[in-house]
Amino acid sequence: MYHAFNNDVPDVPKSYCLHNFRVAAGLEEGEFGGLVFQDSDLYKYIEAVGFYLANHEDTRTEKNCDAIIDLIAKAQLDDGYVNTYFIINGLDGRWTNLAENHELYCAGHLMEAACAYYAGTGKRVLLEVACRFADCIDATFGPQPGKHKGYPGHQEIEIGLLKLYEITGEKRYRKLAAYFLRTRGQKPYYFDGERARASEESLRHSPQWSSFGEPYAYMQAHRPLPDQDTAVGHAVRACYMYTAAAHLAGIEKDEELLQSMVRLWENITQKRMYVTGGVGSMIYGEAFTLDYDLPNDMMYSETCASIALVMFSMRMLNNTGEARYADVIEQALYNSVLSGQQLDGTRFFYVNPMSVWRKRCLGRADMEAVKPERQGWFNCACCPPNILRTLTGLGQYIYSYSEDTVLVNLYVAGNGVFPLRGGEVRIAQSGSYPWDGDVTLTLGLDRPAEFALHLRIPGWCRNAQATLNGRDLDVAALCRDGFLVLRQLFHDGDTVCLHFPMTVDVVRSHPSLPFNAGKVALRRGPVVYCLEEADNGGELWNVALDTSCPIKAQAEPGLLDGVIALSAQGYRKQGKTGGELYTLDGPPAQEARTLRFIPYYAWCNRTPGDMEVWVTEYEHHK
Amino acid sequence: MYHAFNNDVPDVPKSYCLHNFRVAAGLEEGEFGGLVFQDSDLYKYIEAVGFYLANHEDTRTEKNCDAIIDLIAKAQLDDGYVNTYFIINGLDGRWTNLAENHELYCAGHLMEAACAYYAGTGKRVLLEVACRFADCIDATFGPQPGKHKGYPGHQEIEIGLLKLYEITGEKRYRKLAAYFLRTRGQKPYYFDGERARASEESLRHSPQWSSFGEPYAYMQAHRPLPDQDTAVGHAVRACYMYTAAAHLAGIEKDEELLQSMVRLWENITQKRMYVTGGVGSMIYGEAFTLDYDLPNDMMYSETCASIALVMFSMRMLNNTGEARYADVIEQALYNSVLSGQQLDGTRFFYVNPMSVWRKRCLGRADMEAVKPERQGWFNCACCPPNILRTLTGLGQYIYSYSEDTVLVNLYVAGNGVFPLRGGEVRIAQSGSYPWDGDVTLTLGLDRPAEFALHLRIPGWCRNAQATLNGRDLDVAALCRDGFLVLRQLFHDGDTVCLHFPMTVDVVRSHPSLPFNAGKVALRRGPVVYCLEEADNGGELWNVALDTSCPIKAQAEPGLLDGVIALSAQGYRKQGKTGGELYTLDGPPAQEARTLRFIPYYAWCNRTPGDMEVWVTEYEHHK
Fold this sequence. Notes:
Oligomer: homodimer
Number of domains of chain A: 4
Shape of chain A: globular
């Protein structure tokens, strides 16, 4: 990725990120390259490196990143403003098109990067850059007389400001985030005035404003947040906003706002989310559409949107302690997020489809966004560094803690250290989840300590078992909000063993969802499976799965970096080359076939071809 | 429609057609209204009236139309040019953007209108206008030095010129049509130069030029016609061009061109056509896509495109005498063309979908074109007058004839008169086809005459029977290219009775067509059926048809102006309100239901709701 930012990767669109900062800093001549929000790609990368350096020594990467940060600092103007597009193209344009020019969005990513890099390395340079910019924005925007009354078209700064508030304790940042969130959607609409003032040039990015029913619903500025009850418009904007709003609701104990976020989260997860944790079912506007409208082929499910849903769910988990939020985090991480990246980390999906007829993706002008194979980089490269910061920052999702409680949200082997009130608690987690459901957690304590250990019982799991130091625990009795709760005096070396029986689940969709009628998906633990042409041939719509036969899970260490594959009894309808399009012939003959399913995230790491998550169910009638 | 052209229909988009001509003629002040090709709507209407007046007395309509024609003549410039957009907005723009400005397209419709009005009324005013404009275009375009080397972005003039050639005998018109058709797609591309010269304003209509693989494939100008082997790009442009090319191939006995047209027609009808005769499976570009890519919901199937396919097929029928072309004419006419108009004639579909989930059509920004109910008029109102000219001009499709042959292509009650070499032949056709398959044809002759009577045996029909004056005919033995051929001496009063047994056919799609996998459509005779919410409830994807049970056809005189409805044994999966999106529950319970199918063309003439042509087949396995 560092090479990409240096325009140093062959055969991919150029990033221009470092070039832009060098030009803005006066170190290089040239024009701005890339999209108006190009800076944010670099900020997400720095955030990822910050998370990474918290747990890894890597002098070269750290040195490179320090140099990038110095460059950003050099580009920053005296008043704290930093955005290479406007520094290079003219400062007259600043804050004139908040709807689409992404300045506040880039600022938010700068703040997130600064927080992570400071937390990971203890270095303050970027944090100070971020604070100066936050101060500049705070001096510019707000309810006070004479200040700019706008808010961003692409939400994100609210997330950054709240993180910056938590790191620095500066209440102005929290108040500014609250201002942006609470002013949004009030009438008269800020964007009405902005559009009236804006030049045609500055409006050219805004074709989609009027197409989502209520005005500005595309950017969730159609109503005040507490009055929004369905997830609408651009999915990343939406989920970034919900993330910040959920965070703010927690900080401010705002029960009304929290309940709005519960409602929106339920609307998404019960009516507008793919089984992979993907969201956004429409290419046009990269957007949510309507309840149960989840087409499998011509769809979006942007990697960034799944990541945003993870972020939103994490804030809700922190607010409520309910495991259902962690279930969705896990569902998205193992499926739609992970599918965004090739196994070797070098290529990426922007859109994560559920059904691919490769020829169609390549042949239809309106499916240009639905690539049937991962790409090396993008003109709009928001997704690759977003995956990177999610993977290097996985720790923030695995555990939560307060002064007397540790929540184990996800089962990922590794070590966690938690400074509780009663002393440091260390947790060593081992196992090979999600391939098997045996997880061992061993506590490291300097002295015995009383605290609560919450262990998530995954929503997909039936009959979970647990022992503490070899003694059986009554999981059902100890379960609260989806967590097994152990509140007691713990000793060094105490060991919890969890057993989550891994069965292959046959998943069916709500009957109001047309596209999956008569179809099933397979899931084992949190991992969603798919059929791929490489194993099963193409035209997968002609394949049916016999769900009455047992489905076998088989470890395949040599396959796709090591996966558990599934084999199942199925049928394939006979194909035909040419001939009549419509016939009076009977149904095509079917041949029995063994079907092989692989994890969805790993598809398209061999010969590219057709792929299907939702497979026709071979029906047995009485 | 006359009222629509007068801006005199409430609550619909204004047409401005007559206003534009009045302004162009200097009779009224004002600006041009509507789209750049607005004139063509009026021309199609005049053409329709011309066909209509050939068989009907209607003084008021004729007077109105004569007045319109006088107005057009007044608007015509001295050099013959007539196009209200450029007369009003400035003649500098003429011929500068052939790709999108539709001047030659409008000219073609003027010529078609003139021919029909002359043929129907004997009046020459419009014919002379059309010839003057054709002469102007002929003086402007062509291979000769100093002439403009362009050709239209939207084909149509080629059709008009060939009709004008046939009416007037003027060979220049034929040559100009041939020039346009044969120059098209030659390299270097004409449109490259035009784009380089054109102003940004004049290019603003052209977003879709680059999205169809080869340059200018959107308007079928990517290759010379004989090298085109698949139907690509904008479906109406394509089929209008094929229509003219097929006509030219016939006139010039150009076997290479004819074979290209056979190939393109086969590509369409064997790989790119809906079972209703609809074409164009993509909203974007109103276009053909790729083989077997025929989605049922987000699709196009514009009424005009089906009409264009009828026109193309008619030219091919004339060239070859093969009944398969008439089969497609019939398939389109009774289904996708007729569905374009409400039963009472006042409202219209532009897009004719095969599957409607009403909520989705109304709720998704990218489905704005797929209206779930007919509209009173359109900003782009190409379809309504196109249906009108097709219905009033139906005679041109029912029969063909040459000096010693009459072809009965379609079975429509009425009277035909044919001036054969051996004297006038009159045919009185009666019956209630397509509701039943009994057709009687009685010949009227002034004296016995020898000629050939070709009677189409519909492609959908098995076991056709026929008698001549009560004597059984051996249909199989007498059949040539799908026609029952009777070549003999006929006498006045000779009567042919045809019996086409009407069965309900269960139609299945080619296995390479993903969207109909596991589904069937019902057809009775040429009429395709559908399920509608008004009869069967909504969410029709949860309904399955048991094809092993008999399907009953029942005349319902009180239903939808009188149709034969079908009732069949089916099942409906249980619906659910709210609850989890994905579950491990077994397949939903199914309840037996009697399903009622109505003719597709008649859907949405009651309470608007969901609709489905392709219905899941309830499968019985051994």
